[in-house]
Amino acid sequence: MTLRNITCAVTLCLLTLSGQAVGKTEVPPYKNKSLSIEKRVDDLMGRMTLREKVLQLQNRGAGRLDEIDRIFNGESFGCTHEMGTTAAECATMYKELQQYMLTKTRLGIPIITSAEGIQGILQNNCTLFPHALAQGSTFNPALIQRMTEAAGEEAKVIGIHQILSPVLDIARELRWGRVEETFGEDPYLISEMGIAFINGYQKNRITCMPKHFVAHGTPSGGLNCAQVSGGERELRSLYLYPFRRVIKETNPLALMTCYSAYDGVAITGSPYYMTDILRGELGFKGYVYSDWGSVDRLKTFHAITPETDEAGRLALEAGVDLNIDSAYDNFERMVQEGRLDIKYIDLAVRRILTVKFQLGMFDAPYGDPKAVSKVVRSAEKVALAKEIADESAILLENKNQILPLDLAKYKSIAVVGPNSNQTIYGDYAWTTRDTKEGVTLLQGLKDVLGNKVTVRHAEGCDWWSSKKDKIAEAVEAVRGSDLAIVAVGTRSTYLGRSPKYSTTGEGFDLPSLELPGVQEELLQEIKKTGKPMVVVLIAGKPLAMPWVKENADALLVQWYGGEQQGRSLADILVGKVNPSGRLNVSFPRSTGNTPCFYNHFITDRNEPFDQPGSPEEPKGHYIFDAPDPLWSFGSGQSYTTFEYVDCALSDSVLTDKDQLTVTVKVKNTGKMDGKEVVQLYVRDRFSSVATPIRQLKAFRKDLIKAGATNTLTLKLPISELALWNARMQEVVEPGEFEIQIGSAADNIHFTKVITVKGK
User: Would residue 616 count as lying in a domain?
Assistant: First the structure.
C-alpha cells in the first residue's frame, strides 16, 4: 500500500468515526425510562440552572394557542392552567404546549396542566356532575368513585394531569359561602368521600389536590378567609382527621394550602403546619401548591411581613413548593444576595419533578385531542350525572304521602319560584350563561308530564332582592292550577358567570340563613291559595326554614345537582325515582341556632330539664326555641318504609388492635324498591376529655327490594375510637362504648355496648 493509500484509509476511518460520534445523540439519564425516578431526578437537577429551578416553583397561565411562545419564551414552568375554553380547544392547546416544552426548552421539562374538577372537568362542554355537597348527600362513595373515573377519562384525553380538588373542609359554619364545595359536616363522611373521589381520578393517572390545608371551613363570622379559632385537640380530632385518612389511604401527589390562619398562625407561612404536621405527622410525600394568592396574603392580609419577597421566603421555607402568585419571582436574585438558602429551592424542585416523573409526563405528557368528541360528555357520562343527582336528592317532608304525585289527581300544575327555570350548578362551574348545557326543573317536568298535565309557570320573585312585584303573577298561576311546585333557594357563580347576583359560593357569605330576598313571602302567599304546595329547595347550603317545615306539604332538597338536576327532580316528583339521599349537613332552626352539627359535646345542647320555648312562653336554653337542628344529619325519607329487624355484634370485648363487625337486618316493608342508608355511630360513655355525644364511624347504602330483608355488614376498627387525651396523646381509652345503629343521627334503632380492654 502506497503512502497515499494509507493516508486516504486513515482519513476515511477518522471521518467514519467522527460521523458516528456526531450522528449519535446521547440520551441523558433523566430521559431513560429504565432508571429509577430518584436517579432521573438527581440527574436532571444536576443539569438545571438556578433560574430553571425557580421557574419550576411557579405557575404560568396558558393563554391561547397562538400565545405559547410569547408567554413561555422558551422556558419551562412547574404548572399551568387554562380557563374558559371548550374541551376540544383546550386539548389542542395543551398538546401544542407540551410539544413546546419538550422541544423548545433547553431541558425539555414538561409542564403540569391543572384544572378545577370538583364536579367534573370544568372546561366548557365537559360533563357537569352534581356539586360536592350533593355528592356527599348520596352516602355512596362507590358512586362518587365512578364519577371521578368518568371525569378522569375526560381529563386524560384533554391532557390535564392535575385536579384542584377535593375539598376536605368541614361544613360547620353555614354562613360561609363555600359550604357547597364540601362533602358535609362530618369528618368520617368527608374522609370516605374524599378517598373515593381521589381513587377515581388516580385510576386515570390524574393526581388530585386535597384542600384546604387546614381548618379553613369554619371562618370567624362565616367570612371567607377569616381566621379559625381552636386548640390542638380540635385541630387533630376534627380538622386533621380527613387529611390524615386521605393521605394514608390514597397517597395524593399534591395538596393545596389555605388562605386562613388557625389560632392566629397563618397556615401558608407556618413550618409547624406545613412541615412538622403535614409531612411529619401525616406522612405526606407530594408537593404543596399554594392557594391562589395565599403567599402574597402573608403580606397583604395577615400582615406578617411588609415585603412580598419575604412572604415568598417564609412560604417556601415553611413547605409551600409551588406558588400561584408572584411572590416567588425574585428567588434567583434573593439566592445571589444571600437572602434565601438554595437548599429550600432544591427541596421544592425535587418534590415537583418527582411528581412529574410519577405521572409519566417525561415519557407520555400528551392528551388525545382526536378522542375528545368520543369521550367527553358521552351518553354514558350524562346518564351517570343523572344517577348521582337521583341519589343525592333528600326528601325531608312528605305529609299525607303527597309524593310521588298521583297524576290522576292533577289536571294542571303551577311550577313557580326563582329556581324553577334556571340550571344552577354552583361555583367553579365553567359553563355558559344559558341553560343549554343542563335541564331545569320546568324543562324536566314538561318532559315527564308531556300532554297529560297543563303546566303553568311564573318566577314570582328573584332569588336575592326585596322586589315583590312578581308575586301576584305566581299566585295567579297557582290559583288556576291544582297543585303548586315552588322552587326556591340560592344561586352561585364564579368569575363573572351567570347568575349576576350570587347568594352562595366562594366569596359570597350570608349574614342570615333565612331564605334570601322575599322567597318566604312568596311561599306564604301561595299557601293562602289553599292549593297543595310542594317546595323544592335548590341550594348550596341548608337554610333556616321552620315555616316551610310547618306549612309545606312536601319538601324535596337538591343541593346543586349538575346538568341533569331538573330531569332528576322531575323523575323523583312523579315517582320514577325513589329518593335516597340523606342529610350530610344539619338544617338550623335560625341563624342564631348555628352551629348546629350533630356530633356536639353533651354539654352543648339541652339540659335534661329543658323544654323548647316559644315567643308566647319562653323556656329552655334558647328561651324562644330549641337548640336542636330542624332536620338532623343523616335524615331523609323514602317512598317506601324500612324496619330495622335485628342487630348483632361479632364480639363485646375487644382491644385497640381488633375490628368489630356489626350485622344489621333491614326489611323493606313498603310496596316500592328503595335504598336505605344504615348508619353506625359510636359514643364513648366515659372519657378523660370531652367527646361528642355520637360520631359516625361506618355507613352502608343498600338497595332493598319491596318485601325483602337485607343483611348488611359494617366494619369498625377499634382504633377509630381513639381520642387525644389531656396530655395530647392519641389513645384508645379502656372502657365502655355504645354502638348505635340508626337511620339518622337523631333516629337510633339499636344501641349495643362493647368493652375495650386496656393493655
Answer: no
CA 241 – CA 233 distance, rounded (Å): 11
**What residue numbers bound the domain in which 421 lies?**
379-596
CATH number of the domain bearing residue 314: 3.20.20.300
Name the pTM for this structure: 0.95
403, 405, 453, 449: which is closest to 567 by C-alpha?
Answer: 449
Residue 410 backbone dihedrals phi, psi, to 5 degrees: -125, 115
Q: Please, which contacts does 83-88 make with residues 24 or more away whose CB atoms are closer than 8 Å?
A: 83/430, 83/495, 84/124, 84/430, 85/123, 85/124, 86/123, 86/124, 86/125, 87/121, 87/123, 87/124, 87/125, 87/126, 87/154, 87/158, 87/372, 87/376, 87/377, 88/125, 88/369, 88/372, 88/373, 88/376
The span from the CA of 430 to the CA of 716, in Å, is 40
Whether residue 544 is contained in a domain is answered as: yes
d(CA 140, CA 134): 11
The average pLDDT across 478-499 equals 86
Count Cα neighbours of 172 within 13 Å in the Cβ-side half-sphere: 22
Looking only at the bridges linking them, the beta strands covering 695-704 and 674-684 are antiparallel
**Rounded mean pLDDT of the chain?**
94
Q: Residue 22 half-sphere exposure, CB side, CA atoms within 13 Å?
A: 6
Sign of CA dihedral 222, 224, 229, 235: positive
Half-sphere exposure of 24 (CA within 13 A, CB side): 8
Instruction: Tell me how far the alpha carbon of residue 361 is from its chain's centroid.
Output: 26
**Residues 391-425: tens digit of each pLDDT:** 999 999 999 999 999 999 999 999 999 999 988 88
Cβ atoms within 10 Å of 401's Cβ, excluding its own: 10
Check whether the bond before 677 is cis (ω within 30° of 0).
no
- Give Cβ neighbours of residue 34 (< 8 Å, ≥ 6 apart): none
Q: Is the peptide bond before 595 cis (omega within 30 degrees of 0)?
A: yes
Grid coordinates representing 376?
Answer: 367527553
Grid cell 396542566 is found at: 113
Same domain, 413 and 449: yes
* pLDDT for residue 607: 75
pLDDT tier, 9 (very low <50, low <70, confident <90, very high otherwise): very low
Summarised one tens digit per residue, pLDDT across range 27-61 is 999 999 999 999 999 999 999 999 999 999 999 99
| Cα distance between residue 255 and residue 289, in whole Å | 6
Q: Quote the radius of gyration of the chain (alpha carbons, Å).
A: 29
Cell numbers that stand for 393 in this block: 336528592
- Taking the C-alpha atoms of residue 543 and residue 419, their distance in angstroms, rounded to an integer, is 15
56 plus 120 within the same structural domain = yes
The C-alpha torsion from 492 through 170 and 79 to 497, rounded to 10°, is 0
Final residue of a domain: which of 352, 374, 396? 374
Burial class for 546, CB neighbours closer than 10 Å (0-12, 13-18, 19+): middle
Q: How far apart are CA 370 and CA 372, in angstroms?
A: 6
Choose among 600, 738, 697: nearest CA to 234.
600
pLDDT reported for residue 19:
41
Q: Are residues 323 and 442 in the same domain?
A: no
Which grid cell sits at 77? 414552568
Summarised one tens digit per residue, pLDDT across range 664-678 is 999 999 999 999 999
- Looking at the fold, whether 55 and 165 belong to one and the same domain comes out as yes
- Cα–Cα distance for residue pair 420/435, rounded to 1 Å: 12
Distance CA(324)–CA(330), nearest Å, equals 14
Other C-beta atoms closer than 10 Å to the C-beta of 358 total: 15
Nearest partner of 398 among 625, 631, 720, judged by Cα = 631
Mark whether 446 and 343 lie in a shared domain: no
What number of other Cβ atoms are within 10 A of residue 545's Cβ? 30
Residues 244 and 117 in one domain: yes
